[in-house]
Amino acid sequence: MKLIIVSTRQHLPDYNEFVESLNTLGVEALVVHNLEYCFLTTRPPLHTIPIPKLLKLVKRFDPDFVMTDSIYYVPHMLKLVNRRVLFHMRGDAWNESYWDRFKFPSLIARIYSHYLYRLGRHGIKKTDLILPNSKWLQKTVRQHLPSHPTQVLYVGIDPKKWVPNHNPRLNIKHPAAVGLFKFNVYKKVLGFLKFTQVVRKMPYVNFYFAGKGYYMNLARQNCPSNMFLLGWLSRLDAKNLMANGDIFIHPSGQDAFPRCLKEASLLEKPIIASNIGGIPEIVENGETGYLCSLDDVDQWIEKIRFLLDNTNVARKLGENARKYVEEKFDWRKIGQGFLKNLKDFE
C-alpha cells in the first residue's frame, strides 16, 4: 500500500511521526507541505494552480490513496490526483466556518470566506473516506453526511519525545495552573472567557496560558490580574511551561481532539478540562484527570483546590494519564488501526 499525505504546515510534525510509524509497518508513505506542491489563490475567484512537482510526484510514487487535512484543498485534490482521496478532518468544519466569517471586517472578505468553506464542504462529500480525528467528530460528520463512509483516525503522539521532567527551570509563581490554548476559534474562546470567573475567585492561584490566535485580544481584555497570557512559545518553552505547572488546565468551549492534553498526560500532569467534544476520549474522569462543565464555576474551583491540596492524588492521576496515552495514542498502534480500516474499506 502507498500513501501520500498533503498537509498544512501546522500539522506537518504530526504527519511526519505518522509516516514513520506507517513505514515501520511496511507501508510506503510520505508527507508533503501543501504550499510546496499547490498554490491556492487568496482572491476570488478561487483557483488552484498545480505545480508540476505535485503531479510528477503522484505519477512517480503512484499512491493508492492521497490524504489531505485541509478543507480548502479537498475539491482540487479530487480533480488533480486521480486517486482515492481521504480527508482527515481535524475540526468541526460546519461550526468553524460559521464563526470564521466574523474574523473579517469587510463584507467581501466574509462572503469570500463563506465561499471557500462552502466549496470545501461540497468537496468532502465527494471524497472516498472521511477520517474524523475523534468519535465525537465522527458523530458530527454523520449528522451532516449520514451516508458517507467514515473511520476515526486519532492524531497520535510519540511517547519517547515526551519524558517527564520533575526539575524543570522556568520562572513562574506557584501554585500554578498552566495551559496551552489556540485563540483562533470563537466558540473555543468562549469557554476560556467563562473560565475567567474561576480565575477571579481564586486569587491565590496563578494561571499561565501560552498560545496565540485571532481572538487573543478578546482574551486579554477579560484577563484577571492573576492570569498571565504568554503568547506564542517555542515547542521547548511550551514543554517547560507544562512541566513547571502543578496542574494542566484546558477550559475550551469546543475541541475535537486537543494535542496539548496528550502532551500534558505524557509529562504526568494532572488535568482538569472541559467536558466537551472529544476531550473525554483523552481524559478519563477521575482516573487520569477531571472533566468539568464550563457553566459550573464551583466544580472547577473544587477540583483545582483538591489537586493543589492533595499532591499524592495529583501525582497518581499524572502517572495514570501517561500510561493511558501510551497505550491508546501511540502512533504505531494508530497506524495499525488505520491500515485495518483501509483494508476493510477496500
Average of per-residue pLDDT values: 87
- State the low-pLDDT regions, or none: 41-48
Proper CATH architecture of the largest domain = 3-Layer(aba) Sandwich
| Integer-rounded radius of gyration | 21 Å
Beta-strand content: 15-25%
**Distance from first to last alpha carbon:** 11 Å
> What form results from the Cα inertia axes?
globular
Helix/strand order, N-terminal first:
EHEHEEHEHEHHEHEHEHEHEHEEHHH
Number of helices: 14
β-strand number: 13
- State the helical fraction: 40-55%
Biggest sheet details: 6 strands, parallel
Placed side by side, the strands forming the largest sheet appear as: 10-9-8-11-12-13
Which fold name corresponds to the CATH topology of the largest domain? Rossmann fold
Name the CATH class of the largest domain: Alpha Beta
Classified in CATH, the superfamily of the largest domain is Glycogen Phosphorylase B
Helix and strand content put the structural class at alpha/beta
Quick rundown:
The protein is α/β, with parallel strands linked by helices and 346 residues long. The protein has 14 helices and 13 strands.
Describe the structure.
By secondary structure, the chain is of the alpha/beta class. The protein folds into two domains: 171 residues, Rossmann fold, CATH 3.40.50.2000; 171 residues, Rossmann fold. It is 45% helix and 17% strand. The chain is built from 14 helices and 13 strands. The strands form three sheets. It has a six-stranded parallel sheet with strand order 10-9-8-11-12-13, with helices on both faces. Helix 4 links the parallel strand 5 and strand 6. Helix 4 crosses helix 6 and helix 11 crosses helix 13. The longest helix has 19 residues. The termini are close together. About 2% of the residues have low confidence.
